[in-house]
Write a structure and sequence with these properties.
The protein has five helices and 32 strands. By secondary structure, it is α+β, with helices and mostly antiparallel strands. The longest helix is centred in the N-terminal third of the chain and has 28 residues, at 11-38. It is globular. The termini are far apart.
């Protein structure tokens, strides 16, 4: 006798079983995928290996070679899984200066190169052709006022404002003639003070004081003299600058605010308002862990024991402090004034105002018009107080000295020579989008000094 046995299961129970098994596989796959993406595992010829980190090798421009410990690995932009440890990363591209940095890779964290490559032979483009003297940048870095007396006709001599747009036009078409020259004013030696909103310039020349709008042409002799109101105007501008500074400094940790306002000099906030460039007055130790530690921070060595005259950058996002140089103590540098912050009362809940404390807003005013203009310029632009300036990306610093201009990362790495040659009055200034540097120079004894752009991008 043959017996047939049949095993039957309830279809609803089968569906529950299949659903449970599917959920387990999905969860396991998700867990593994997340771990793989984070670097907890990576696939090798020996199978999956635990505890790796990631290097995001990115650059501008892209398509550069990535060498790790002198071995060509890939091209930017790419993500590479590496065992935790320290690696020498080099990024190269034909026609550009190489980028190199020692980077620590940590388990399950992503380290980024963010390599900005500069042309090894940057081109020079003239921005002016009829001469440029007495150059003064605006506080927001969008315009420059200058004087020329070498135009083809006398009516074209005088004051110009150069608009620093993204794509500049040649032949001075970005320059707006705002005032015809008046020989008795001696505009070549005039003092300029920009308003905080960048819309006006107070021009003081040979006993005259006038307010010029920067968006149209005006007749100097037809403008009302504001000499009687000069002190009041500058006090109002100083109050505006104080309120702006107070707003930006409030975003930094309390310990840093206290040091910046009481024990530092030449303090300049980065364009993204997240970093401080400053010079230490005396030896001081910054506390550790001012803010709670965050993952995947800059792994370059920092310095929290400050030395007198050391120039530093503090990063408020990562609580890192890097030494970038030393204050120039030469005889010429000693004559330069020092910028002092205005918002020294940041811990007071109520800010000062001109009506209640008029005497509080004359700190930048001096005994002469020229000295006052200098203190305002020093406050607004770091060009005049030391050799370091922020590049607009807030990740690089311009470092200019006699006949040499360099750009370095804010952690003092990749100090790259951009330009080597003569430039007048140590003047160098970045284009708002960081694509160019401006210098003031003349290439022959018989030609006037003009503004030129040193191209940083191709």
């Amino acid at each position: 006798m043959t017996m047939k046995l049949r095993l039957s299961l309830d279809p609803s129970k089968l569906r529950v079983l299949y659903t449970g098994l599917s959920a387990i596989f999905i969860l396991a796959g998700a867990y593994f995928a997340i771990g793989y993406a984070r670097g907890s595992y990576r696939l090798t010829q020996d199978g999956f290996v635990e505890e790796s980190g990631l290097l995001s090798a990115n650059s501008s421009p892209t398509g550069a070679q990535v060498l790790i410990d002198d071995k060509l690995i890939t091209a930017t932009d790419d993500t590479i899984y590496l065992d935790p440890g320290t690696y020498q990363i080099k990024i190269t591209k034909d026609g550009y200066t190489p980028w190199e940095k020692t980077i620590s890779i940590e388990k399950e964290l992503v380290a980024q190169t963010n390599a900005l490559l500069f042309p090894s032979a940057p081109s020079l483009t003239p921005l002016t052709f009829t001469g440029a003297a007495n150059v003064s940048p605006s506080p927001n870095g969008q315009n420059i006022i200058y004087y020329t007396d070498s135009a083809s006709t006398k009516s074209k001599n005088g004051l110009y404002v150069l608009e620093l747009s993204g794509n500049f036009l040649p032949l001075q078409k970005n320059s707006q003639h705002i005032a015809e020259d008046v020989p008795s004013w001696n505009l070549k030696e005039a003092s300029f003070i920009w308003s905080p909103d960048n819309s006006q310039v107070l021009v003081s020349a040979n006993g005259h004081n006038v307010l010029l709008s920067v968006d149209r042409e005006q007749q100097l002799n037809a403008l009302a003299d504001v000499g009687i109101r000069r002190k009041q105007i500058l006090s109002q501008w100083e109050e505006e600058m104080y309120l702006i500074e107070r707003q930006f400094l409030a975003k930094f940790p309390e310990e840093i605010i206290q040091y910046a306002t009481q024990s530092a000099k030449n303090v300049y906030i980065s364009p993204d308002k997240k970093k401080l460039l400053y010079t230490a007055r005396e030896q001081y130790s910054l506390p550790d862990d001012i803010i709670p530690p965050i993952p995947a921070t800059n792994t370059q060595p920092e310095e929290r024991t400050l030395q007198a005259d050391g120039v530093y950058v503090y990063d408020s996002e990562e609580d890192k402090n890097f030494r970038v140089g030393t204050k120039d103590n030469s005889e010429d540098a000693a004559s330069k004034p020092q910028k002092q912050l205005l918002a020294t009362d940041l811990f007071n809940q109520t800010p000062l105002n001109l009506n209640s404390s008029p005497s509080a807003f004359v700190r930048l005013q001096a005994t002469t018009s020229a000295q006052t203009a200098k203190t305002f310029q020093d406050y607004q632009v770091s060009l005049y107080t030391n050799s370091f300036q922020w590049l607009p990306d807030s990740n690089h610093l311009i470092n200019s000295s006699t006949d040499t201009i360099k750009i370095m990362e804010y952690d003092s790495t990749n100090n790259t020579t951009i330009y080597s040659g003569q430039f007048a009055e140590d003047f160098t200034y970045p284009w708002p989008d960081g694509s160019k540097l401006m210098i003031l120079t003349a290439f022959s004894p018989n030609s006037p000094t003009n503004l030129y752009a040193v191209e940083l991008k191709r």
